[in-house]
Amino acid sequence: MNESIKKLHFGQGQGADKRPAEILGHFANRHGLITGATGTGKTVTLQVLAENFSELGVPVFITDIKGDVAGLSQAGKQKEFLDNRAKELNIQNYRYEGSPTIFWDIFKKFGHPVRTTIQEIGPMYLSRLLELSDVQEGVIAVAFKYAEENSMALLDLKDLKSLLQFMGENHKEISTNYGRITNASIGAIQRRLLNLESQSADELFGEPALALADLMRQDMSGKGIVSIMESRDLMMKPQLYASFLLWLMTELFETLPEVGDLPLPKLVLFFDEAHLIFEDSPKEVLKRIEQVARLIRSKGVGVYFCTQSPGDIPEDILGQLGNKVQHALRAYTPKDKKVIRAVADSFRPNPEFNTADVITELGVGEALVSTLEEKGAPSVVERVKIAPPRCRMGPATDAERKLVMSRSPVGEKYDQDLDRESAHEKLLQRKKDLAEQKAKEQARLEAEAEAAEAAKPKRRPGRPRDSFATKLGKSIQRRLTTKAINAIWKTLFGRRR
Ligand SMILES: Nc1ncnc2c1ncn2[C@@H]1O[C@H](COP(=O)(O)OP(=O)(O)OP(=O)(O)O)[C@@H](O)[C@H]1O
Ligand SMILES: [Mg+2]
User: pTM here?
Assistant: First the structure.
């Protein structure tokens, strides 16, 4: 084997040759899967992989569903059984240390805020996220176009809501210029937005938007920074979790250049409790995640899903996950047994053991492993003991987290909310201007009418009003009003009615 190949060493095979369990650096972008019943060692495996990627200089992004991933930021406590395990598994240079970490949190409590803008999500993904019909998608497209042509930034949900309301109030005029939109479809979109809002999506949308470069940092010593995203609350809001994932993957895909298989990936994403993403996501979102997963690897990004059973992952995505760590599964019910058979069949058999039998026998921190070999084919399944982590197995305390955050290179940039002038403010201003303009025009017309009245010869008292002149005055006034309204529409929609 070529010695210059970078490898991520994460355990040792239990076969006669005691082969090291490794992910080849240039195939780490071929994605991965970590599965197993509860308490079998998935999160620790996640930590071991993450800290070894970091050690190799690869930045890592990882969702923390239970708070126990955060231990990655702290050195583990020295314990004899860990030292012994490291020795037994031939882990070189084993030591207790944390990885350089940035904490993130959409809800701003346990990390620096993670935000993106409506504009960045774009009309297409927004429509998918909201599961809009073709007609409704057309309305969203008009909203984005109108905002662009009128230099109105769409940053947060407030902007989009104000714009939709404005479009509803002026739907006839907007339809003339941008294609037909109806109040019914606007109403339907507004209802969908309320739904998203009930999952606190307003927290995700806004500025300053997260720059991808901040997820792809190294520290001064060249280690990849581990970005840990607090997800305890996020887990209760699957639509938001999926929105975030979709945005992140799409943004990476659209921003990063095509690079093929690099010696090491540029970034690795870990999604713990991945079943949450797939259980409730709209079909269109799933399809998009599948597509992006397929394409993102040539941009040098690896995606690793962590969940209890491979059955939690849609087939099309499952087929793309090249590096697999299967911890123990329990075989209580006939359904469990069926799953185990399917999982066993998905591995290349090892003549030394029966895969299905071993899946149920594996101890904590033990797993069946298959990674991509040098030619890109999956290796024969191996029974592996996973290395002990160098970091803490368990959460970080609030004080530790605060300390990490206070030293973070990104705090200054993200901690302060920004609310620059955007569509919402501009539309408010526009409404105010219009009202003022209308009032002024009205006043001018009234003054003109009064002046005309004053210029007329005085009538003798008691004589009836000159009904013809009044009619004429009214008709002029009507014409003037129409003119004024047309002028207002011109400023509003750029075109004449
Ligand atoms: N590689 C390992 N080295 C040493 N101890 C380990 C290892 N893996 C797991 N353990 C032990 O097993 C415990 C449970 O592991 P872990 O929290 O990773 O399980 P899990 O599969 O993520 O569980 P859950 O489904 O409940 O999240 C750890 O706290 C640790 O004590
Ligand atoms: Mg876990």
Answer: 0.84
